[in-house]
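Our preliminary data section would be incomplete without showing what the modeling component actually yields. Below, a chain of 66 amino acids is followed by its predicted structure, encoded as tokens that our downstream tools consume directly.
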Amino acid sequence: MGEAKRRQELTTAQGAQKQPWWTKEKSAEFVRITTRGAWIGIGVMIAYWVVIRFIGPALGWWHLVD
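Predicted structure:
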């Protein structure tokens, strides 16, 4: 039983020293970056729609819309 207890203490000590690879700070940073990316994508999509829907036909690009 002594060997098993020694191994358990060794693994517990090693586990206490390791830092988790995914922390709350990393999670918050991930949410912040992906939210910003989503809003940028929405803005690009709206700008593309405005060009195709209004500016393109006004400049005579009507044949590209069909």
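The helical segments are 2-17, 24-58, 62-65. The chain has three helices and no strands. Preliminary results of this kind motivate Aim 1 of the renewal.
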